[in-house]
Amino acid sequence: MTFLFPIFLAGLGAILLPWILHRFSRETPPATLFPSTRFLEASRAPVSRKKRLRHLGLFSLRTLFLLALCLLFAQPYCSTAANRAKSQANTFVVVDRSASMQAGERWSRAQSGAAEALREGASSSAAAAPLNSVQLFDMASTLTAHGELSSDLSLANAALRDLQVSAEPGDYGIMMQQLDTLAAEQELPVDVVFISDAQRSNLPLQPRQLRTQNIRNFAIQSVADNETNLAIQGNASSTDGVNVAVSLRLLFSTTAEKFADAQVADLIVTAGERTLASEQVTLQANDPQAVVLEDLILPSTDTDFLNARLIADSTGSADALSIDSSINIPVQQVTPVVVGMRALGTRMPADASLFLRTALTTDAMARVVSASGSGAALSNDAKHWILFSEVDESGDYVVTPVVEDLLNAGGNVMLILQPSSPESDEPDEAEDYIGSVDVAHPLALGELDWQHTRIYSPVTVNLEPNDRVLIRSGQGLPLIIERTRHDGQSQGNGSTAGRFLIVTDPLDGIASDLPLQEVFVEWIAQTIQWFDANSAFPTTLEVGESVSLPANAQLLAPDGRAMQSLADASKATRLLLKEPGIYTVVTGVSEHTIQATVAWEESILVAIDNDYMAKWTRGELSDSESTASENMDATADELGQRIVASGNALETGSSPSAAVTSERLGRSWWPWLLPLLALSLLTESLLANRRLAVRRDGL
Amino acid sequence: MVGPVATESFLQPSVLGRLGSLELIARAVVEGSLVGMHRSPKFGFSQEFAEYRSYNEGDDLRFVDWNVYARTDRTYIKRFLGDTNTQVTVLLDASASMNFGDPVSKWQLAQYLSASLAYLINHQHDAFGLTIFNTDIVSEIPPSGSTDMLHRVMAHLHAATPVDGTGLTASLESLSYRLNRRGMVILVSDLYADSEELIKALQPLVHSGQELILFHTLDREELEPSHKRISALTDLESSEKVVVAPEFLTGVYRKKINDHCELIQSTCQRLGADYIRVMTDEPLDTVLHAYLRRRETHPL
Fold it and tell me: N or C of chain B: less Cβ packing under 10 Å?
C-alpha cells in the first residue's frame, strides 16, 4: 500500500496529543454540593502520570479518528497484486510516436517491440483458454487507436507497419489518463505494454497523473539507446529589413544525463545560398546554451527567412535526431503601423490631432499620415484610420461613403466625435468619471488604469441596437463604442469588415482630461494593436500546438499547400501544426508567418531512471517524486547524484530491449475512511459525554 | 390495639411535594396517621377523667387510684384526657445544609413534619410554638393555643428559607431561657454540630423539665454517598470545598457520620429524650405513625 500524498502522514504526530491528554492530564474533580464537610477529609487529587492511560476506549477512538483523518488526506492506495483473474485479459500495446522516437534506431526497435508485444498479448497462458484480445495505439499529442480489440493480429500488424513517427511531442500523463479511461470501459482486466524511449521530459509535472485505477499490468519497454542529439531553436528580427539580430538556443542532449564529453558543433546561419554566420560552439551535455548573433546583414534576396543549423563535429557523437538540428527562422520585421488621420466635413481639431499624433508616434508604434478635404478618397497606404466628425444636435454624425467602403474592405476606423458648437475653455458641466469598462472585450480595456480620468462634457450620440459600449461614464454616458455594421457583419463573427470604434470624447483636453492622462497612450497603443489584424497570430508555435484561424483565412503548410479546403476556410477553426517549418496565415488583408518548431522537450533525450520507471509501473508514484522540469532546473550537486543513478541505470537496465514490468491493482482505500471517520467522531462524542460528564444542556 | 398499616397507603415524599399547600400536607399526614391508629392520641395531661386501666409493672404510681385500691384491693391506673395547657415548641433548623436531599430536601421534609406536628397539636388543642433558626433565631411564634395559630405557623414555615450556617447550640441555649413552663421541645434538624456541644446544649432543656424529641432529618446520600469518582464536595453552609476520594466516602466518612448519629441517639436515650431519624426518601406518615404508636404510653 502506498499513499498519494504521503506528506499528510506527518499529521500522525498529532496522535501524541490525545496520548498526552490521557496520560498526563490532571483530573479536575467535578464540584458537587454537600450538606456539610464536617466529617470529610481532603484526599490528594491523583495525578494520572502515576497511573496507566485512562479512558482507553476514548483514547483509542480519538487515535482512530486522527489516524483516519491523516489517511484520508494521504489517500492510501493499494497496489499489491490481488487474486484477480489472470488467465484472460485485454492488452493495449501503445507505441510512442513522439518526435524523439526519430532518434537513431528507436522507431524500428519500437515497431519490432510492438509486434512482439501484440503476439504475446494475444497468446493465452492457459492452453484451453481462448486467445486474448489486443489493440494497438500510438501516442503523440494524443492517444490514437488503430483498429478494434481483437485476437486477430493481422489488422494491428498492418497498422503498425503503416505507422510513421511524428514530429509531435508526447505527454505520458495525458496518455496514462486516456488509457485509464479506456480500460475502465473494458469488462476484462487490461494490461498495457508501452513501447517508448521513456523520455524524462515527457513526464507530467504532477507524477500522480501517471497513476491509474483500471489498468492491471503496466509495462514499459524502453527503446532508448545511448543516442545523442543536437538541437537548435531561435528567432530573428529586423527593424530596417537589412540588419538582423538572431537569438538562438542550442542543446547537446544525451540519453544518459551524465555524459562526460562536451560536443563541438558548427553553428551555421544562412540566408538562401549565402552564409551569414558560421562559428564553432562547444556544448556541454544536457546544458542548454544561448547564442545571440547581432548585426547580420540580410542579403537582398527573395527569401524572408534564415536557416540556422548545428552540425556535429566529426570527432564527437553523431546527431541521432536530425529533425531539430536545423530550423528556418522567419525574420520578423519591426515596422511602424501606418495610421491615417482625417476630418470628415469639418476642420481637423488641432488639439485632438496633436494629442493623438503624439500618442501614436510614441515608441515608433505608428506612422501617421494625414489627409485633408471632405470628398477625396482615403489613402490606401493606411489600413487604420482616425477620423473626426461633428455631431449635430440630434446626435447624428456624418459618415461618408468612403468610410463605408474602407470598413467593408477590412480597414479599421476610430471615429472621434466633435461637438457642433465649439466648447468653452472651462468645463461647464459637472465632473464625471469612468464608470464601467467592458472587460470581456478583446480590446482589453479593463487592464488599463482609468481611475484618474475625469469626464466633463462628452458628445451625446445616438446608440444603435448592435452597438457595444466599451466604456461608460459614471453617469452612464457612452464614451467608447464598438459599432457593428448595419449588414450584421462584425469582426467578431469572422467577417472581413473592419473594426469601427466611436469615441464620444472630442479628445481636446476640455471635454475630458483623458488626453492628459497616462492611460491615453496605452489606450491608443492597444487600440492600434487590436486594429492590426496580424497581431492576432503568434509568431512562434511548437509542433503539436494549434493555431486559431478566423473565418476566411487560410493556413499554408511549410511546403506551400493549403491546410484546409475553401469550404472549411469560410469558418473560424483551429488547426494542429504537425510538422516543423514556416507556416503562412493568409487573410483578406494580410499574410502572417508562423514558425513551428519541434517541441523543446522532444530534443532532450534524457531517459527516466529505472527507479522512477519501476515506481511508475507499480503505481507507487506520489507528487513528491522529482519531475522532469525539476530535473532540468536542478542544482549541480543534485544533478550529479542523479547522473550517477542514471548512469547506473543505463549500464544495468536501459538496453534497447529493457523492460520494466509490474503487476498492479488499482484500489483506493481512502473512500472507506470517510464513514469510518464520521463513525469514530460520533462514538467519541457519545463516549466523551458519558465518561467525561460533558454537559450539553445548551445553557 | 393499633393494627399494621399497609405500606402502599403511606404518602411518599414526592407525593407530598406535589400537594403544594402545607396545610394540606399536614392534614394528609396526620389524619392518615390517626385513621391508621383507630385511636385518637388525645390521652395527655388534662384533669378530665378518661378511663381506668389495670396497673402494669412500670406504670407511674402517681396515677394509681388509691380509693379504688382501698375498696377493691386492686390497683388501677386512672387516665385523663389531653391537657390543653401543655405547650409544644418546635425548634426548626433553617441552615443551608437543610437544603439538600432527594426526592425532597431535608428542609421540605422538616417543613412537612413541623406542619404536621402543628396540625396534630392544634387538633388536640395544645399550645404550639415555632422557632426557626440557623446561625441565630430567625423567627419565633411563642406557644399559643389560639385558633389562628396554625395559620401563623404555616405562614412562617412558608416564609423561611434555609440559609447560612447552623447555630444549634446558641439557639437551644437561647430557647432554654425563654421556656419558663414545662412542656415539650421538638427539635427538627440535621444536627450538623459538634456532638459534645450539642449534648451540652440539650442538657439544660431536659433538666428544666422539658420533654425533648429530636427529629434527625437526613438524606440517604449523606449516610451513604454514591460518588464513584474523586469529587470536590462543596459545603452548603460554608462553601468550603473538599476534594475527597470515593474510597474515603465509602469507608471513613460513613463510619464518622454513623458514629455521630449513634452518639446523639445514645445521648438522647440517656437524657430521656426521643430520637427519631427521618429520611427524605421515607414516607413521612410512616415515620409519624410509628412514632405515635411508640408514644401511646406517653401521648403528646
Answer: N
